[in-house]
Amino acid sequence: MTISEKIVSDFVANDISFVTTVPCKQLAGVIDAIDANDSIYHIPSNKEDEGMGLCAGAWMGGKRPAIIMQNTAIGVTINTLVTLTQYYRMPLPMLISYRGELGEPVACQVEMAVHTKALLAQLNIPTYHFHNEQDANELDAILKHTFMCNKPVAILTDASFWKGY
Amino acid sequence: MIRSEVLKEIAPIIRDQLVVCNIGLPSQELHLIDDQPSNFYMLGTMGLASSIGLGLALAQDKKVISIDGDGSVLTNFGTLPTIANNVADNFILLIIDNGSYGSTGDQPTYAGKKTSLTKVAEACGCEQVVECQAEQTGQAIKDALASNKMTIIVSKCESGNVKVPVITMDPVVIRDRFMQTVKA
Fold first, then answer.
1. Model-level pTM greater than 0.90?
2. Which of A98, A161, B133, B151 is the most exposed place for a label (fewest CB within 10 A)?
3. Closest among B55, B75, B154 to A17, alpha carbons compared
4. What is the tens place of the pLDDT at every residue in A112-143?
C-alpha cells in the first residue's frame, strides 16, 4: 500500500465520505486515490473557503467531510475557519501539504511556510506535522480526535514526508 | 419590491424546506419574518451560502434552498462551476439580485451593471437557470420544487432595506436545531 492509499484507507475507516480538494503536486497521489475510491464523494473546489463551505453543508447533512489543500490556503481561509467552522463548532480534518519546508525549490513558498504554524497556533487549531513516513501512523487517531472535539484540525505534510516532489 | 418583501412573500413556500440563508440582512429579515429550525442562518463568512447548501444537498435527500445575494455570489464566483458540475437535483439556489450590497449600505454591485448572473450561471454549465422579476419569485420556487431538477433562480428586485434586529441566537443552537431537522 502506498502512503497515499494508506491515508485514504484511514479516511474510509473513519467514515469520511465527502472530500473536497484543491490541486497540489505533493498531494496528487492522495487526490487520485480519493477520486478512485467509490465510498468517497470527491468534489474539487475552486478556492479553499468554498471547499470549507461545502464541507460544512455535508457535515450538517450527515456525512463526515475532509479538505485537502496547501498551507497557502491558511491565508485564504482564516475568516471561514473562525466564523463558520469554529463558530458553529464543526469538525474538519485538513490534510495540508506543507510547502516551503526543507527540499522546497520555490522560494516564494517559504514566505507562507514561515507563517503557517504561527497562524494555526493563533487560531487555536490542533496541528500535527508529518515529517517522516511513520508519522502517518497517527492519522487514524487524529481523525477520531477531530470528530470527537468538533474542531478544524490541521495535518501538515512536508516535502520530507513525501520524499521530495 | 425589495428583498425583505420578496422574503415575506416566499416565507410560506420555503417554510417546510431546508433553507441556508445568506449573511447579514437576508438572515436577519428571514429570522424576523418566519424563524424556523429548518433555517440555517449564516452569521459570518460572506459568500458561502451556496457552497453550504450544495454540500448539504449532496449529502442527503431532502430539498435544500440556499438564499443568496448577487454580491455574495460575486464574492464566491467559483461556486457556480462547482454547482454546475456536481448536480444535486434536490438543490435550489435562489439569488436575490438587487444589484447592491444591501447589508453594507447599498453600494452597487457589478451584477446591477453589465454583468448578468443568469448568463454567468448558464455559461458555467448550470442547466436550469430561471431569471424572474421579484413578484414572480414565489412561483419560480414552486416550479423549481416541483421539477425535481437543480435550479438556479435569479430574482431581480429593487435595492433597499428595512430596519431589523441582529440575530442573537447562539450559532451552535442554530446549527444543532438545523441538524435535528435535517435528520428528522
1. yes
2. B133
3. B55
4. 999 999 999 999 999 999 999 999 999 999 99
> Which residues of chain B from 7 to 36 reach within 8 Å of chain A, CB to CB?
20
Q: Which of chain A's residues have a Cβ under 8 Å away from the Cβ of B61?
A: none
Query: A103 is in which domain, residue-wise?
Result: 3-157
Task: Give Cα separations from B96 to B3, B68, B136, B179 (angstroms).
Answer: 7, 6, 12, 25
Q: DSSP per residue over A96-155, as a string?
A: EE-TTSTT---HHHHHHHHHHHHHHHHTT--EEEE-SGGGGGGHHHHHHHHHHHT-EEEE
Local structure of residue B114 (DSSP, 8 states): T
List, in order of start, the domains of chain B with CATH numbers: 3-183 (3.40.50.970)
A37 contacts A5 by C-beta, under 8 angstroms: no
Q: What is the pLDDT of residues A72-92, one digit of tens each?
A: 999 999 999 999 999 999 999
Give residues with Cβ within 8 angstroms of A6, minimum separation 6.
A136, A139
Region of residue B11 (phi > 0: left; psi between -120 and 50: alpha; otherwise: beta): alpha
- With respect to residue A162, please indicate whether it lies within any of the assigned structural domains: no
Q: Are A76 and A134 in contact (CB under 8 A)?
A: no
Q: Which residue of B has its CA nearest to A18?
A: B59
Q: Is residue A165 part of a domain?
A: no
Place of cell 454540500: B55
Q: How many domains does chain A have?
A: 1
Query: Mutate which of A42, A88, A90 to disrupt the B interface (most B C-beta within 10 Å)?
Result: A88
C-alpha distances in angstroms, A22 versus A31, A97, B18?
A: 9, 11, 28
Q: How many residues does chain B have?
A: 184
Q: Is residue A75 part of a domain?
A: yes
